[in-house]
Amino acid sequence: METKQDKPTATPFKAVRLAASAALGTLNEIYYKELANAKQQGKPVIWITSMTPIELVYAFDGIPFFPENYAALCSSRKVAEDLCKAGEARGYSQDLCAYALCTFGIMFEKRGAFGEPPPDPDILIATEGACATHPKWWEAMQRFYKCPMIIIDAPYTVDSETLAPRQKAYNVAELKEAVKLLEQATRKPFNMDKLREVVSLSDQASELWDEIDAMRAAIPTPISQIDVFTCLFPLVTLKGTKGAVDFYKQLRDEVKARVDNKVGFVPNERFRLIWDLFPIYHNMRLLNYFAEFGAAFVTDLYGNAFSGRLDPSDPFGSLANRYLSFFMRAASRGKAELYKKRAKQYHVDGIVFHSNRCCRNFTAEQPDIGAILREELGLPSMSFEGNMVDPRGYDDAQVKSKIETFIEMLEARKYPKK
Ligand code: SF4
Fold this sequence. Notes:
Elements: H1 20-37, E1 45-48, H2 54-59, E2 63-65, H3 67-76, H4 80-89, H5 98-109, E3 123-127, H6 133-145, E4 149-152, H7 165-186, H8 192-215, H9 225-230, H10 233-237, H11 242-260, E5 271-276, H12 286-291, E6 295-300, H13 315-324, H14 332-345, E7 350-356, H15 360-363, H16 366-377, E8 381-386, H17 396-414
Parallel strand pairs: 1-2, 1-3, 3-4, 5-6, 5-7, 7-8
Helix pairs in contact: 1-11, 3-5, 4-5, 7-13, 8-11, 14-16
This protein binds iron/sulfur cluster.
């Protein structure tokens, strides 16, 4: 029998701001002030890659700085394109990871998201755990800043279930070696009690984040994907501090109140989607375009990459466990399995892939993941091209037209007209 479908129409959408956003703004302000004053206070500024145990930085009373996170900030403040061009002017390719390219612009031009550049690093720490770009990028910065650099080697692992004891033991040894090098570079003795305290705070922040993440399964889903991405800042940069724990308690309570009162962030939720993978920092409003059609993102894996439980009674062992088994290291089959589980738990209708041109590391596998979800779960998907940081080459009209076609297809599947 033939079915006739009306074209879905967009309804202007205005997101309700989280009350916790004010607390997040304050945390941001405090962090950037501390970063700016770190050297005067005798605190080492430690530039660190994502998926490197930030807990070691706080254990040494350092101030961590994540160039990736900062490049995202530059992008949302619309200065990333210029900084990327400055990196290109020094010979780096536009096809390079835009986090790296933007950081090279910051490094050579000595300017940043708010005009002034971030303070130079006293120490650089990287790991190969998340991406092979990191150590090369850090080496280039080491040549420029001429400060000590520590590379924590991480063996290739597929997921937490298959993490071999020898891999964990190797990474524990690497972490302990990093501690020795940090003692030399900071001229401070390592304090195990301090590490346990930091690990405990980091674990509490992760536990709260996991609670919030689980509540996104509620119908309607209580929190937007923009809020999820925005609220990640403490989990990335302040994990291991009391400020992060207090913030996530407030956020958890607010999200819980929304769930208890059946308040969704989309007033009339019609479709529930998965977002894969990177945010699109220069145009976060794109996520609201889905909301105009009643489509809500209810889960993603990126947001959870920075979470992970730790055990203060076994700081090194649990750090190795967490950082070797975080999902981004999983092969496409592993990620597809995670999504399959979530698709059921979160009542998902489809998946959206942001094919991030500058990150081959995590886009190469997206077609595989999409195929597995389609074949094994019948889950439809759409994909669009962009760059998480650099707005060049992103075509908003074309992407929106793809979204409309996708929503039309979802409409026909979920609400067929007789
Ligand atoms: S994983 Fe992708 S986005 Fe992250 S540093 Fe590597 S290339 Fe860049």
